[in-house]
Amino acid sequence: MSKWIRKGDRVTVIAGNDKGKAGEVLSRAEDRVVVQGVNVRKKHLKHTQQTQQMGSSGRIIEREVAIHISNVALCSAQGKPLKVRVKQAADHRELVYGAAGKETVYRTVKKPA
């Protein structure tokens, strides 16, 4: 259920080179998400006026690159993927998942107006 993923959620990678890694969603844009510690790439920065003020003549930084939202799933604190569903409460909707035979609320989807 990738449409329920948003910034701040804990997700695990279910496909790709980083399969099995878990992290927090740093940003989301359309169908891509940036996950902390996942899909890390090196970026080479040239020598510029700004980098010269920092005391270096250029450098290499590592940063996370976006991955497709279909390759991640909401996960528990242990990093296991969750199957969530929407449950209608009296005045709002909640994402719930089943654990140990009972329903646990993951978070509220829509707050009352």
Brief descriptors of the model:
48% strand; mainly beta; SH3 type barrels; five-stranded antiparallel β-sheet; 2 domains; 113 residues; 1 helix
What can you tell me about this protein's structure?
The protein is mainly β. The chain has 2 domains: 2-75, Roll (SH3 type barrels); 83-113, no CATH class. 4% of the residues lie in helices and 48% in strands. It is built from 1 helix and 10 strands; from the N terminus they run ββββαββββββ. It has one helix at 49-53; strands at residues 10-13, 22-29, 32-35, 40-45, 59-64, 67-68, 72-74, 84-88, 93-99, 102-110. It has a 5-stranded antiparallel sheet with strand order 6-3-2-1-7, with no helix packed on it. Strands 8-9-10 form a 3-stranded antiparallel sheet, with no helix packed on it. A two-stranded antiparallel ribbon has the order 4-5. The longest helix is centred in the middle third of the chain and has 5 residues, at 49-53. The radius of gyration is 19 Å and the shape is elongated. The model has no long low-confidence stretch (mean pLDDT 85).
User: What is the chains' assembly state?
Assistant: single chain
Order of helices and strands, N to C?
A: EEEEHEEEEEE
Low-confidence stretches: none
Question: In angstroms, what is the radius of gyration?
Answer: 19 Å
What percent of residues are in strands?
A: over 45%
The helical percent reads under 10%
**Largest beta sheet: strand ordering:** 6-3-2-1-7
> Remind me, CATH topology of the largest domain?
SH3 type barrels
N-to-C span: 25 Å
Q: What is the total number of structural domains? A: 2
Question: How is the main sheet built?
Answer: 5 strands, antiparallel
Give average pLDDT, whole number.
85
Number of strands: 10
In the CATH hierarchy, what is the class of the largest domain?
Mainly Beta
